[in-house]
Write a structure and sequence with these properties.
The protein is an all-alpha fold and 183 residues long. It has one domain (15-179). It has 6 helices and no strands. The chain has helices at 17-29, 32-48, 57-78, 86-89, 94-127, 147-179. It is globular. It starts with 16 loop residues before the first helix and ends with a helix. It is a multi-pass membrane protein. InterPro entries: DctQ (IPR055348), TRAP_DctQ (IPR007387). This is TRAP transporter small permease protein. It holds the Pfam family DctQ. Keywords: Cell inner membrane, Cell membrane, Membrane, Transmembrane, Transmembrane helix, Transport.
Amino acid sequence: MKDIPTPPEAEDAPKNRLDAWIIKVSHALSLLFILTVFISFYEVLMRYVFDAPTTWVHETASFVGGSLFVIGGIYAFATDKHVRVVLIYDAVSAQTRRVLNMVHHIVGLAFSLMMAWASYIMTTTAWYTPWGEFRLETSGSYFNPPYPALLKALIFVIFCILSLQFILHIIHEIKALRSGKDV
């Protein structure tokens, strides 16, 4: 089979300013993985060397790791590293790829909007009592941080950003389809 070159835009270059911002912020936030290593090391040291386990490390490391995992979704989309069926995608022309991208982006936009709505509902129940009083949902542990409420809010924000990303990518593909060349 003949090797079809990928369009220049398919490389790591961001397609818009939002993608560029996401990439920049994500690179900075990725340093928080080092924080989870350090606090996990601290927990091991305290537990096994000083016999004084902490009450906060496991939940904090889980929260930081989970948050970064959620942010990784918009990073993958911004860098065009999301999952796709390359067996089909790589075997078609650049113009057909654009059409496949449009289908992907439209379905993705519908999905991200529905998930944003669902996460909004989930976030409001995590931030407010049924009678409307502000109260963050907590983990229920001895440490009892508001990490569940914060993570749910982050998921909502990320799905809103992802929806905006899909809209911007749809605009990009429409411009490219109209011009018949790379934008």
